[in-house]
Amino acid sequence: MSAMEFGFPVLRRGRTMSRLFSFDHCNEFSRAKPAAQVVEIRSTEQWKAYFDASKGNNKLLVIQFTATWCGPCRFMDPAIKEFAATYTDVDFIKIDVDKLMLVAMQFEANSLPAFVLVKKGKEVDRVVGVQKLELQIKIEQHRI
């Protein structure tokens, strides 16, 4: 049996095998589940448009207040992406407090990371700190 029969590429002197170093064959795994959707809000105008639109529906909005220099915030990022992929009926947005200070002040996001849960424009709950399980419980509670 040759190496090709086992699915291994055969390298021959003087030829390159670009497919050997390609990850195209892994794309089927990334298509297996929907990509996490966490919208990063970059301007006051974008924030107002998003927030005003959320007032008109009964969908839970989870606002993640964060900063680039915040280690615990970065630690929670994978969990938030996981939640966004799991709870597709919930909107997740991320706000950098250094870029949108007025929004952070409006929601009194004084400690980071802070997660504010909003429905129809009103705060229904919040979680402060690295509290993955607590946040998940509150998302489950308010998403209905």
Automatic annotation (TrEMBL):
State the PROSITE patterns in the record: THIOREDOXIN_1, THIOREDOXIN_2
* Bilayer-spanning residue ranges: none
UniProt xrefs under InterPro entries: Thioredoxin-like_sf (IPR036249), Thioredoxin_CS (IPR017937), Thioredoxin_domain (IPR013766), Thioredoxin_H-type-like (IPR050620)
Which SUPFAM superfamilies would you find in this protein's record? Thioredoxin-like
Domain (Thioredoxin) spans: 1-144
Superkingdom: Eukaryota
One Pfam family matching this protein = Thioredoxin
Question: What is the name attached to this protein's record?
Answer: Thioredoxin domain-containing protein
- The organism of origin for this protein: Manihot esculenta (Cassava)
